[in-house]
């Protein structure tokens, strides 16, 4: 896990910023400026504490370890790990790719097994927003596996 430092950020928009947004809109409908022209969006400073987060996504291999160790069965199996060959076997080429086709409940069970937790919407913790290819502060880029040809 890596530490994400605390940050202060502006949340919301000022009236001037909102008016600039409206002026730059490509899509306009009749009466839009009149109905949206005087929206009051409060802007406030938000201070978020530091927290720790996994440096990389959970891989199919890691999730398979959890499934085998706990004999985990989802409550709703519709679409559960539908890309796997069997409930306890992922395709060999996908072992280092991020696990997909699991629910929020499945992810929470995995985290509980690891004695970790998913970030909650109102926990005061944040998920970092990254641009494609950008790493978290202090992170080393993960080498990406190549899919089979």
Descriptive notes:
With 149 residues, the chain is of the alpha+beta class. It folds into two domains: 51 residues, no CATH class; 60 residues, no CATH class. 23% of the residues lie in helices and 11% in strands. The chain has a two-stranded antiparallel ribbon with strand order 1-4. The chain starts with a strand and ends in a 36-residue tail after the last helix.
Order of helices and strands: EEHHEEHH
Strand content: 5-15%
Proportion in helices: 10-25%
Number of beta strands: 4
Count of all domains: 2
Residue-averaged pLDDT: 78
Can you tell me the residue ranges where pLDDT is under 50 for at least 5 consecutive residues? Answer: 123-134
> Helical stretch count?
4
Quick structural overview:
This protein has 149 residues and is of the alpha+beta class. Helices cover 23% and strands 11% of the residues.
């Amino acid at each position: 896990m890596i530490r994400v430092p605390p940050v202060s950020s502006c949340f919301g928009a000022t009236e001037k910023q909102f008016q600039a947004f409206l002026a730059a809109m490509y899509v306009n409908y009749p009466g839009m400026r009149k109905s949206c022209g005087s929206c009051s969006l409060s802007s406030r400073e938000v201070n978020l504490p530091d927290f720790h987060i996994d440096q990389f996504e959970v891989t199919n291999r890691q999730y398979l370890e959890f499934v085998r160790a706990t004999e985990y069965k989802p409550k709703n199996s519709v679409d559960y790990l539908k890309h796997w060959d069997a409930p306890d076997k992922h395709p060999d080429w996908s072992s280092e790719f991020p696990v997909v086709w699991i629910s929020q409940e499945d992810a929470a069970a995995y985290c509980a097994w690891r004695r970790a937790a998913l970030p909650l919407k109102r926990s005061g913790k944040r998920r970092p927003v990254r641009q494609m290819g950008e790493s978290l502060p202090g992170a080393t880029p993960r080498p990406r596996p190549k899919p089979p040809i």
